[in-house]
Amino acid sequence: MPGVDALSAYSAGLVSAVVHVLGADPVRIARDTRLDDGLAAAILRHEGQVGALLWTVEQFTRLGTATTLIPEGVLSRTYLEALAGAVEVIDSLQQG
User: Its domain of life (predicted)?
Assistant: First the structure.
């Protein structure tokens, strides 16, 4: 998405996934990981461009459809690529 810092978007997605998968408290995670105000606002309240992007991805994972923010084909492909990357990370952590 133009104008969105890739590292910020990745970080927001990672923290959001931790919150979702582990059932963690997002406020506590934001505080304990010392996220900057913009990233915390994106994760906690879906503010700013990163927040809008995160909201779109979260909606896609829940409903299986995309908004006009990102074309559905792009979102589907990117989601599957991210999922494959996450599986690789999990496998490498389990192998120790």
Answer: Bacteria
